[in-house]
Structure formats: structure tokens, C-alpha cells
Write a structure and sequence with these properties.
Radius of gyration: 29 Å
Largest sheet: 9 strands, mixed
Helix content: 25-40%
Strand content: 25-35%
CATH superfamily of the largest domain: Bira Bifunctional Protein, Domain 2
Shape: globular
Structural class: alpha+beta
Number of strands: 31
Number of helices: 14
């Protein structure tokens, strides 16, 4: 390709609307342009990179025996109603009606459609296992699109689905995907980590997320030695309380605490740290109220909480509900005397004594409250891990990293087989349920994650496997016939070796050409300048900025060997 013929609208300044690095550079380098909130047009360079990512994905999926499909993005409501996700997905699901008033949606994932195909076509266990995948546009009615391609309303996903006869078969399909994902992300040049995760609205049991560390991310990962888990699921031993509990079997004592409602305000009043207080949160799980108790400095993990009470639909109680159930407003709530709901206390409260809690009376708190003695509660791990907690296996403080999710694999189990009636005949002639898995990769997130991890003040530093071009050939002086001839010769040699080469034949100053090449992230630059008279050109590696003189005849081959 010749740069003078291409549409690469680079910008010199960061657009005001772009906050994270990948968004800034994708706009500045002419990869994308925004059409509306969370909806982007992919221009020439972006499309080249995204197609390369997709090809890597295809190669690795095909290698595990997966078969590529292409399913409708427009789905009838009936299949989503069968699975139950029509209601579960809420406002995140784009919904519309056709001219006849029939409900439709724009698919976020394709479990329902794949299950419909399997239900209609698979008859016998002898047809299993099956792995079907597609690379397709997905839609999510994201309420707050931001961060460029990281939180959007329209995106590209590789989603695959496994159908197996039994749990052992699902284990094998899950492991195949895990290995394929690691190869995909490695080939794309990402520094990633696989972590234990929660399945969420996808359903199922075991799930693993693949994450790249980045300050642009919105997920948090807890790392402790070889252990890694999403913050919503991670476990650790809590850091010890800032102040030891008072000794002795003291009895609760009501104290007037006018205007003190937050943990911080109550702690200041009693001159005690947050670790000495009991935080009371009123939650509603599947319509039933539950009082959740935490150490004052801890936060509730709704994922752990919902699992602990075996509830699907959870929410905080509304102010009028709290007033009706407790006779007091939030900020003065506590467990003593509560008989009308289940009390679930976090494990960090087990064994504690003489703490501060609300008195269920406005502007009053109790001191000397001992969990398990002054009130009865069930104990479970329902908190988020926090900085300073101790790794269970390592005995050392955990590390919490901000990350971007680039892939997620799920063991769905029988969720969709049960709800949608997916059965095959087993060896004995009886019907058996098919067990399923679901596996997703965010194509644009791979590109954004690579940029977040690999950039400098001059622009992107893309890995050769996913860069729009591998090498750019840049003659310094277009008026010099010898330079033009050498540039064309090297360009043709690169093409002959299978390199994605770009010839910068623009009538621009050398500095402009160099800046543009660095901005768009081309891994190698061959510059033809004054040393041509001695048979040499300059080879610059974008990642290290290392420069070396190589012979004209060997330049293309050297780049090929390094790719």
C-alpha cells in the first residue's frame, strides 16, 4: 500500500472527549470516529488490525475443532423468554417491535439461538461433542458508554458454545477453550492473567476471566501468589482490626449519637476506627429481606451475598421498607432485637466482641455488641477483599490490580438445556440433558488492551501480529531518484516475503512521516536517506526505538526474521 492513496486522518492533539490512552490514540491515529455515544465507525487502519485479530481467533478456534457459524443479530423475543433472560437482562437488552407489533431484540450473546439450533438438529449422544462459534456484532444498551472501545453499545465478539454428553465432556471443552484463549492472547502480544470469576447473568457454575492490567479498566483482580480472582469473587483473610476489641463480657449500652449516621461519623464520635464498628445493610433477595452485617471498613460483595442466600434477584431495601421493618432510618440500624428477617454476618465478624452497632432507634447506637452472643446470625464470606488483606495460601498482603476483561469462559451446565428443552438420546435409548459451555472474546478489547499496555508519548506500540502494517518504508527525499528506486525495491521485497508493508510516498517533511508512523504503531520503519550511497538504510524498531544500519538488499529479510 502507498500512504498517499490511503485515508489515514491523523490528529496532532488529543480530542477533548477522550479520557483513556487507547481512546485518545485510536482517534488521533485515524483508526476510529464516533457516530454516537458508544457507537464507532472503524476506519481503514482499525479494520486491518481487527481483521488480523479475528484471523488469529479463527485459527486457534479451528485448531480445537470448533465450527464457525454466523447467526442473526436480530432475535425474536420468544427464545429469550424461553431461557428467562428476556426479564433478567433488563434495560441492557436492546428491544424493538416489528411492523406487526412482535417483540424483538438485538442479541448481546447467542446462547438462546445456538440452543435452538441444537435442539432442532441434535438427536443422539453420538453427535456429541460439538463446538460451534461465530464472530458477530453484538449490542448492549450501555447506560454510560465511555473509554472509547472499552464500554460501547455495539461491539464485535467471538462467542462459542460447547455441547457435551456429560460433565467430563464439558470439562474437556472448557479446558480446550482455556488453552486456545491463552494462545490467542499470547499471539496478540498481550500480558494477561486468567482469574476465577462469577458467571453472572450467563448462568452456570465455573467461569474464568482473562484480564489485562490497565488503569483504563473497570474490573479489579486480586492477586496472591498463584491465586488470581475477580474482586467480586476473590477470597482472603481480613487484615487485623486497627484497634483490639475490649476484653470481657460487656453488655450492650445505648448511646445518644445525634446526627451521626455514617461509619466514619460514628467512629469519630466513639474515637474508634471503622474496624470496631458493625455495618448493617438491608438487602432484598428474591423478595425476602435480609440484614447483611460487615466490618465497618468492608464492602458487600453482591456476588457472594447472592450465592450465600441462593437468590437470583437482589437489591438494597428502599427507605420506606427499612422504616417499616426497623422503625428507624439507615445510619442507626443494627442486629440486636431483629426477629423479622434473616441475619447474615460476614466471616470477618466471627469471634469479634464489644463492637459498635446501630440501636434501631434514630440517633442512637449501641456499644459492647458481640456477634453470635447478643444476636444470632448465619456466617458467610460476603465481603469484597480489600487492600492489606492477607492471601490465604501466601500469608502475605494481596495485590489488587485494575484490569480490562478481554475474554470470559463459562460452564453453563444445564441452564439452557433445562429451560429450552435440549435433549438427546443416550446409549440406553433414554433422553438425557445436554450440558453446555459458553466462551466469549471481545475483539475490540484486544486492540484497546494492547494499546493500553504498549504505548509511549509518541503513540501506539502495536505487536506485529495485530498492527495494521508490519513495516513502513520511508524515503527521506522524494526528489532523489535513487531513494525512490530503493524504496520501491525494498517495498516489493517486503511484499514478496509476505510482510504487510506500507510505502510512505507522501510529499511531507521526514519529521511528519516519522511522527505519523510512530503514532499509528507500525512496528518497524525502514528509512532511506543519505547512507544509501554506501548501500545502507536505517532500520528502526518502534518498541525500543533502537536504530541500526542494514544493507539495502537485506533490509526486508531482516524485518521478516524478526517478525
Amino acid at each position: 500500500m502507498r500512504w498517499s492513496k490511503l485515508f489515514i486522518p491523523t490528529l496532532r492533539e488529543n480530542p477533548a472527549e477522550a479520557e483513556v490512552v487507547s481512546h485518545q490514540l485510536l482517534l488521533r491515529a485515524g483508526y476510529i470516529r464516533q457516530l454516537s455515544a458508544g457507537v464507532y465507525s472503524y476506519l481503514y487502519l482499525a479494520q486491518r488490525s481487527l481483521l488480523k485479530i479475528q484471523q488469529i481467533v479463527r485459527e486457534e478456534m479451528d485448531a480445537i475443532g470448533a465450527q464457525e457459524f454466523f447467526l442473526p443479530a436480530l432475535n425474536p423475543a420468544e427464545v429469550w423468554q424461553e431461557s428467562g433472560r428476556w426479564d433478567v437482562m433488563g434495560e441492557n437488552l436492546f428491544r424493538l417491535k416489528d411492523r406487526f407489533g412482535r417483540d424483538l431484540c438485538l442479541a448481546m450473546t447467542h446462547e438462546e439461538v445456538m440452543t435452538t439450533i441444537a435442539r432442532g438438529e441434535l438427536r443422539s449422544y453420538k453427535q456429541l461433542p460439538q463446538i460451534w462459534y461465530q464472530i458477530q456484532t453484538k449490542f448492549r444498551d450501555e447506560p454510560r458508554p465511555k473509554s472509547g472501545l472499552l464500554r460501547v453499545r455495539q461491539f464485535t465478539m467471538k462467542d462459542s458454545y460447547s455441547f457435551d454428553f456429560d460433565a467430563a465432556g464439558l470439562d474437556a471443552s472448557f479446558d480446550k477453550h482455556a488453552a486456545a484463549y491463552k494462545r490467542i492472547f499470547t499471539r496478540c502480544g498481550l500480558d494477561f492473567v486468567a482469574v476465577d470469576a462469577h458467571s453472572g447473568a450467563m448462568g452456570g457454575t465455573q467461569s474464568t476471566e482473562f484480564m489485562v492490567a490497565s488503569e483504563a479498566g473497570e474490573d479489579f483482580v486480586v492477586i496472591a501468589g498463584n491465586y488470581a480472582a475477580n474482586l467480586e469473587k476473590a477470597v482472603a483473610n481480613p487484615a487485623p482490626p486497627a484497634v483490639p476489641d475490649p476484653e470481657g463480657g460487656l453488655e450492650p449500652e445505648a448511646v445518644h449519637t445525634p446526627g451521626r449516621k455514617t461509619i466514619e461519623e460514628v467512629g469519630d464520635f466513639f474515637n474508634l476506627p471503622a474496624t470496631s464498628s458493625i455495618k448493617s445493610l438491608v438487602m432484598v433477595g428474591d423478595g425476602q429481606p435480609v440484614l447483611a452485617l460487615l466490618r465497618g471498613d468492608h464492602q458487600l460483595s453482591e456476588t457472594k451475598f447472592s450465592s450465600a442466600i441462593s437468590a437470583i434477584d437482589i437489591r438494597p431495601a428502599l427507605p420506606h421498607e427499612i422504616r417499616e421493618w426497623f422503625g428507624a432510618d439507615p445510619g442507626s440500624l443494627g442486629p440486636i432485637g431483629v426477629k423479622n428477617m434473616r441475619i447474615l454476618a460476614d466471616e470477618a465478624l466471627r469471634g469479634r466482641r464489644n463492637m459498635i452497632a446501630g440501636a434501631n432507634r434514630d440517633d442512637y447506637h449501641l456499644r459492647n455488641v458481640t456477634p453470635g452472643h447478643h444476636f444470632t446470625a448465619d456466617f458467610a464470606d460476603i465481603r469484597q477483599v480489600t487492600q492489606g488483606d492477607i492471601g490465604i495460601e501466601t500469608g502475605r498482603p494481596v495485590e489488587i490490580r485494575k484490569t480490562i476483561e478481554i475474554g470470559h469462559i463459562f460452564k453453563l451446565g444445564y441452564k439452557y438445556s433445562d429451560s429450552m428443552g435440549l435433549r438427546v438420546l443416550g446409549p440406553d435409548g433414554n433422553e438425557v440433558r445436554v450440558i453446555m459451555g459458553s466462551y466469549g472474546i471481545g475483539i475490540e478489547r484486544i486492540l484497546s488492551g494492547a494499546i493500553e499496555q504498549q504505548h509511549d508519548t509518541d503513540g501506539m506500540i502495536l505487536p506485529p501480529a495485530i498492527a495494521p502494517f508490519t513495516v513502513v518504508i520511508t524515503p527521506v527525499n522524494l526528489a532523489d531518484a535513487a531513494q525512490q528506486e530503493a524504496a520501491n525495491s525494498i517495498y516489493q521485497s517486503c511484499l514478496a516475503l509476505g510482510l504487510d508493508a506500507l510505502l510512505d510516498d507522501r510529499d511531507e517533511r521526514p519529521g511528519v512521516k516519522f511522527k505519523d508512523a510512530d503514532l499509528i504503531g507500525i512496528p518497524y520503519r525502514i528509512t532511506i536517506g543519505k547512507k544509501l550511497s554506501k548501500g545502507f538504510v536505517e532500520l528502526v524498531t518502534r518498541k525500543t526505538k533502537a536504530s541500526e544500519d542494514v544493507s539495502v538488499t537485506e533490509a526486508a529479510g531482516i524485518v521478516r526474521s524478526r517478525v
